[in-house]
Write a structure and sequence with these properties.
Shape: globular
Number of helices: 10
Order of helices and strands: EHEHEHEHEHEHHHHH
Structural class: alpha/beta
Largest sheet: 6 strands, parallel
Mean pLDDT: 89
Low-confidence stretches: none
Number of strands: 6
């Protein structure tokens, strides 16, 4: 039996997908939104964490790296993400969190079932439709930390809120914003956000 933790912030979609997965005789599924994901991982002890990359909690930064660690079995728990080629910034975050599988959100539930079984068997799974997104991710000029800062800024967080969320000083956040503005060729913070959203980085 493969224990699956499904993390998705949209309740209706999450419930429907969990119900579909539960029909498979070798899958045992529990599901939650991002705010409860860490606690659910600790109690469910999943073999696979299936996580949607869009996250409404913590100003939109999904704590991907924490999921398998919270499950108490980082050596065996595998991370599989639901992604879109139009969001290369999120794909890059998932890669840096060492995700083992990437399923296109436009794929069928059966494709997700196949991916779950493959990553559980120790293989990697990448939807071929995400190839362009990975190419775009490789071209991104921003670091992981800069992306985190920019994601928070894009959701309206102030310098103080960003500093608190990422455990940084306000001066450090301002330095990151200056680097982001320079690397994106933007005129200011608002312009940097606009450019980055247009590229799908945040």
């Amino acid at each position: 039996m493969i224990r699956v933790l499904l993390v998705h912030d949209t309740c209706l979609l999450r419930s429907a997908l969990a119900e579909h997965l539960d029909r498979e005789t070798d899958l045992e599924v529990v599901h939650t939104a991002w705010p409860g994901a860490a606690a659910r991982a600790r109690t469910a002890r999943p073999d696979v964490c299936v996580a949607d990359l869009d996250c409404s909690d913590s100003y939109g930064i999904a704590p991907l790296a924490d999921l398998c660690e919270q499950a108490g079995r980082p050596a065996t728990c595998r991370l599989l993400v639901l992604a879109s080629a139009e969001r290369p910034g999120l794909l890059r975050r998932a890669a840096e969190a060492q995700a083992a599988g990437y399923v296109d959100k436009a794929s069928t539930p059966d494709q997700l079932v196949r991916a779950i079984r493959e990553v559980t068997a120790g293989k990697r799974f990448v939807d071929e439709t995400l190839g362009f997104g990975f190419l775009k991710a490789a071209e991104m000029p921003l670091t992981q930390r800069e992306l985190s800062v920019l994601s928070l800024a894009a959701r309206g967080a102030s310098i103080a809120e960003i500093a608190l969320s990422l455990h940084l000083s306000r001066g450090t956040v301002r330095n990151y914003m200056a680097a982001i503005t320079r690397k994106t060729g933007a005129r200011n913070r608002v312009d940097a956000i606009r450019i980055s959203q247009g590229e799908g980085w945040v």
